[in-house]
Amino acid sequence: MTPFTRQIGRFARPKWILWLGLVGIIAAVPIRAQVVLENSAELNRVDIVERIGATIPLDLTFTDDHGDTVRLSRYFAAQRPVVLILGYYNCPMLCNLVFNGMVDGVNLLDWNPGEEFQILTVSINPEETPDLAASKKANYLKTITRPVSDSSWAFLVGDSSQSRALADAIGFKYFYDAGVGEWAHPAAAFILTPEGRLSRVLYGIQFSKTDLKLSLLEASDGRIGSPMDRLILYCYHYDPDSRGYTLAATNLMKLGGGATMAALGLFLGLLWYGEKQRRRHSDRNADSAGNQAARG
């Protein structure tokens, strides 16, 4: 994780996501950017309207980083959760921060992309080419320290009707500012189930190990990870106010109560067993004494 990413991450909450989405516009044309930021109608076009539980249209078609036409269903065939990022490859700033944040998060996991989960990036810019997608992909695969394959992280391009349909399905609102030639959009990663259903939205440009791992585990419905991972997930819940996973006090108390009852049961069992052994030993001693008296 770069120092700049850590610094920006402190502000990566919903309100700041919208402002960051227009940073490139601010840098390019200050006067025009000021108009955009002060225009609430345009600002409202950059947003995330969570549609948890919605299923994306898996029959949408794109072109992958090899130049092949593919359907979205291809990336869900392995029955593993999918991390979806919408953005574009020539983005002057925000998208690179999101990509870098995803790399940082993945490098902290003990799971491998392409095995326990799939990463998928779809460009919202219909002018971008498969060659550009391939170049971007190569750069980011090199920065992942975990074992990866070419299929671990797919970079797609395609017609605006397809990317728009995908964005609408998950509540990702963006627009093209013709005045500066840039796309204004929010920053987030969308966690999808193996069936293509939206399970969780991770906001911002940083994705902590805890949030990324628990959201993937949640989306997989326990199909990935160890029993201990599932126990950890039970101890957490997603807090919509903090936009992250926090300890679930109720579940912790249930586990604590269960552990207490188990410990008490074990303690009573040991007492019962000890008493049983003591009586057995006492009976044996009594029988031995009786036998000796009879022989005497």
Task: Describe this protein's structure.
47% of the residues lie in helices and 17% in strands. It is of the alpha+beta class and 296 residues long. It has a single domain, classed as Glutaredoxin (3-Layer(aba) Sandwich). The strands form 5 sheets. It has a 5-stranded mixed β-sheet, with helices on both faces. It has a two-stranded antiparallel ribbon with strand order 1-7. It has a two-stranded antiparallel ribbon with strand order 2-3. Strand 8 (175-177) and strand 9 (182-184) form a beta hairpin. The longest helix has 47 residues, at 249-295. The radius of gyration is 28 Å and the shape is elongated.
* CATH H-tier superfamily: Glutaredoxin
CATH topology (fold) name: Glutaredoxin
* Major sheet: arrangement of strands: 6-5-4-10-11
| Broad shape | elongated
Q: Can you tell me the CATH class? A: Alpha Beta
Residues in helices, as a percent range: 40-55%
Question: Which class do the helix and strand fractions yield?
Answer: alpha+beta
Radius of gyration: 28 Å
Identify the CATH architecture: 3-Layer(aba) Sandwich
What letter string, H or E per element, gives the SSE order? HHHHHEEEEHEHEHEEEEEHHEEH
| Count of separate structural domains | 1
What's the average pLDDT? 79
Rounded to the nearest angstrom, the distance between the terminal CA atoms is 87 Å
Number of strands: 13
Q: What does the largest sheet look like?
A: 5 strands, mixed
